[in-house]
């Protein structure tokens, strides 16, 4: 249907190329083994999706869908056994406007978002091999960035069924509350106004992102950008200076820095010299962490548990600020889905912290009234993994150009 030559592979695929059929399983034992995958600990969502499809259908690899601004006119075989098959026409010139695939291809051209059927074989189904294979997909697709501003996103054709999204129902009272905040911001001096909107923009843009590391870091930047402005740049006439932790002379700052270094080095130097120097530099010389701690203690003076959430409370061995450092300093492995999932699980915490910080600033410094409680959120639960007992029970489209466009 696409007009492309199609690759021949060894092993069993569940779908023909460029199709995504409904899941069919008549074997109850196989069905229950597949359902048990969702309760496995230590597997990322993509790893579960691969194992789920295998247990349910006997598929010998991972079928996935990829999206890219790269237009490949025929199928490609990449490193690690990854195959990409274009799910669009190689050209639309001369095609009938009544042809559905021609129209969908033109839509992809307009959006610069082309759809591919992806495949990678999995020979053995132990957890270590599945993890290596999932990473191999990211490795194979990441190489495209060397040729320009080319990127690939991908997801399993049959994602784990517990992935949900939310819709928030805004009522009239919610809009009025936001309008009151807008008026307060508009009454500020230009520098204060820019600083607050800059912080809001970091949080807002983070909510629009899919990548967990970027979304996490943007939420932290929402806090750090405003904290830095209040502590170092707001004028003495700004209403925001009431939130400033302390004003120090250059001599006092130097004395605090020296004390910070003297406190850290004896503790860490004997056991880990490299970590001692790094910690002393980032905590004392650059001072981002210590300055932020001091500022937030002033903001949340009656709520020390909030500060603990950011700096002290560890989940899987990492505090929120530990994750921030890992991302910002490049030690997070962007191709490790396990690490991405670890970050994803903490996104709600850091977003909640950033939102709470901004609200306290608005209320304390500008006199904004607290928001009313009780916004209704509804969950959309994907039914893409619904399993039926026969192929004829699924009545929806199967071509991926239709399913994913």
Sum this structure up briefly.
This protein has 405 residues and is α+β, with helices and mostly antiparallel strands.
Written description of the protein model:
The protein has 15 helices and 9 strands. The protein is α+β, with helices and mostly antiparallel strands. The protein folds into 2 domains: 163 residues, no CATH class; 217 residues, no CATH class. Strands 3-4-5-2-6 form a 5-stranded antiparallel sheet. It has a two-stranded parallel sheet with strand order 1-9. A hairpin with a 5-residue loop joins strand 3 and strand 4. Helix 6 runs antiparallel to helix 14 and helix 8 runs antiparallel to helix 9. The longest helix has 22 residues. The two termini are 16 Å apart.
Secondary-structure map:
Blueprint: E1 23-24, H1 28-36, H2 45-57, E2 61-68, E3 76-77, E4 83-86, H3 100-111, E5 114-121, H4 127-142, E6 152-156, E7 164-169, H5 172-186, H6 190-207, H7 212-233, H8 250-268, H9 273-285, H10 288-299, H11 304-311, H12 320-328, H13 337-344, H14 347-366, E8 376-381, E9 387-388, H15 400-403
Parallel strand pairs: 1-9
Antiparallel strand pairs: 2-5, 2-6, 3-4, 4-5, 7-8
């Amino acid at each position: 249907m696409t007009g492309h030559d199609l690759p021949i592979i060894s092993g069993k695929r569940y779908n023909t190329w460029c199709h995504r059929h409904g899941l069919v399983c008549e074997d109850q034992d196989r069905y229950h083994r597949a359902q048990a995958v969702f309760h496995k600990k230590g597997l990322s969502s993509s790893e579960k999706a691969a194992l789920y499809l295998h247990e349910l259908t006997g598929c010998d690899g991972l079928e996935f869908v990829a999206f890219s601004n790269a237009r490949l006119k025929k199928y490609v075989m990449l490193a690690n056994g990854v195959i990409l098959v274009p799910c669009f026409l190689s050209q639309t010139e001369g095609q009938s406007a009544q042809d559905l695939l021609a129209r969908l291809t033109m839509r992809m051209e307009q959006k610069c978002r082309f759809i591919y059927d992806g495949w990678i074989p999995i020979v053995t189904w132990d957890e270590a091999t599945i993890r290596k294979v999932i990473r191999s997909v990211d490795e194979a697709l990441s190489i495209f960035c060397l040729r320009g501003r080319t990127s690939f996103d991908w997801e399993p054709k049959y994602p784990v069924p517990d992935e949900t999204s939310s819709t928030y129902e805004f009522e009239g009272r919610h809009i009025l509350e936001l309008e009151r905040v807008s008026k307060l911001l508009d009454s500020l001096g230009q520098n204060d106004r820019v600083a607050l909107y800059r912080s809001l923009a970091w949080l807002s843009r983070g909510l629009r992102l899919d990548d967990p590391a970027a979304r996490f870091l943007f939420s932290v930047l929402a806090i750090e950008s405003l904290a830095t402005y209040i502590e170092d740049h707001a004028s003495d006439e700004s209403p925001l200076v009431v939130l400033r932790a302390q004003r120090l002379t250059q001599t006092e700052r130097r004395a605090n820095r020296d004390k910070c270094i003297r406190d850290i080095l004896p503790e860490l130097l004997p056991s880990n010299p490299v970590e001692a120097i790094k910690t002393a530099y980032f905590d004392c010389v650059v001072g981002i962490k210590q300055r932020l701690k001091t500022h937030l203690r002033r903001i949340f003076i009656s709520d020390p548990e909030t500060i603990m959430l950011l700096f002290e409370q560890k989940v899987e061995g990492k505090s929120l600020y530990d994750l921030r450092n890992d991302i910002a300093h490049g030690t997070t492995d962007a191709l490790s889905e396990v690490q991405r999932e670890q970050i994803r699980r903490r996104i709600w915490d850091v977003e909640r912290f950033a939102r709470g910080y901004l609200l306290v600033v608005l209320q304390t410094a500008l006199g904004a009234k607290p928001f009313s409680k009780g916004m209704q959120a509804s969950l959309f639960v994907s039914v893409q993994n619904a399993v039926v007992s026969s192929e004829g029970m699924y009545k929806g489209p199967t071509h991926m150009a239709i399913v994913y466009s």
